[in-house]
Design a protein that fits this description.
By secondary structure, the chain is of the alpha+beta class. The chain starts with 12 loop residues before the first helix and ends with a helix. The chain has two domains: about 120 residues, Butyryl-Coa Dehydrogenase, subunit A, domain 1 (Orthogonal Bundle); about 120 residues, Butyryl-CoA Dehydrogenase, subunit A, domain 2, CATH 2.40.110. The protein has a four-stranded antiparallel beta sheet, with no helix packed on it. Strands 1-4-5 form a three-stranded mixed beta sheet, with helices on one face. The chain is globular, with a radius of gyration of 18 Å. The longest helix has 22 residues. Helix 1 packs parallel to helix 4 and helix 5 packs antiparallel against helix 6. Helix content is about 35%, strand content about 20%. The protein binds flavin-adenine dinucleotide. The site of flavin-adenine dinucleotide has 13 residues, from strand 1 and strand 3.
């Protein structure tokens, strides 16, 4: 039991038990390493494997993809506990980005990536922001040109959470006309991917253990079947569909802070 916490109306004894497990795990297995992680500017990706095996990475993942099919409350409890322990926002972004695949991926894409995102074998980020484009997502200039069975991606992103440690990355790129209708989301498996380069780890005034990175794409070739949802030009609509969850996922840790 956690008597010091105000009991939320959506809280039940199962969620409370889960919260207790998460809290104990973080205290025993993660908190001792936080000073080193802050110093180096990132949490090693291997940390997320046992976290995933405990069922903490993506508890809301449906059972058919290896998850527990739990309510979103469980994910938010994980984010809340990580933040209370002064851990950064890597799992928040992992959940945000995973929801793009859950909600918009083709069945093949879901089968391919979701089990690994739940188990912590893969850590995912989402790359929207560019050196010249933040709030105004319609102005994204990173380009994905179709070349046979591939897209060829050129451009740069910045401020990308999980950018240094992720091995899966959703990139918002221009596949068509100027404006919102020309954007698409393309999923990259980033390990040993020619033309993909991680730049500086950016220093911030907070969350020093969260890797926030610059990313560069120089003729990166990606199989066309990694276009999220399989249809070009849906990127902006997909972004607008997920940003409410992103805002909630920022609000919960912000309240925890
Ligand atoms: C710690 C951290 C982690 C991040 N992680 C990610 C990530 O994982 N992926 C990712 O893609 N991005 C990420 N970002 C980037 C973040 O999404 C952008 O910083 C944000 O979109 C704002 O963009 P900008 O910084 O270019 O500011 P700008 O777009 O230049 O905006 C600056 C200010 O001007 C205001 N403004 C802008 N346009 C208008 C307008 N037309 N009218 C009135 N006011 C306006 C904005 O509200 C803001 O207050 C991260 C940023 C930080 C700090």
């Amino acid at each position: 039991m956690l008597p010091q916490l105000h009991r939320q109306p959506w809280m039940d004894s199962d969620i409370e038990t889960f919260r207790d497990q998460v809290r104990r795990y973080i205290a025993a297995e993660m908190a001792p390493h936080l000073p080193v992680w802050r110093e180096q500017g990132y949490i090693p990706r291997e940390v997320w494997r046992p976290f995933g095996e405990m069922g903490f990475m993506l508890p809301e993942l449906p059972e058919e993809y290896g998850g527990a099919g739990a309510s979103l409350a469980y994910q938010l409890v994980v984010q809340d506990e990580l933040t209370r322990a002064e851990m950064p926002n890597n799992v928040t972004v992992h959940s945000i980005a995973s929801h793009y695949i859950m909600d918009f991926g083709t069945e093949a894409q879901k089968q391919r990536w979701l089990p690994k995102l739940g188990s912590g074998e893969m850590l995912v980020g989402i790359a929207m922001t560019e050196p010249g484009c933040g709030t105004d997502l319609k102005a994204i200039s990173t380009r994905a040109r179709r070349d046979g069975d591939h897209y060829v991606i050129d451009g740069a992103k910045t401020f990308i959470t999980n950018g240094f440690t992720c091995n899966l990355l959703i990139v918002v790129a221009r596949t068509g006309e100027a404006g919102s209708r020309g954007l698409s989301l393309i999923v990259l498996e980033t390990e040993n991917l020619p033309g993909f380069r991680v730049g500086r780890l950016l220093e911030k005034i907070g969350m020093p253990a969260s890797d926030t990175a610059e990313l560069f794409f120089d003729g990166v070739r990606v199989p066309a079947d990694q276009l999220l949802g399989g249809v070009e030009g849906h990127g902006f609509k997909q972004l607008m569909g997920q940003l409410p969850y992103e805002r909630m996922s920022i609000a919960v840790p912000a309240a925890a802070v």
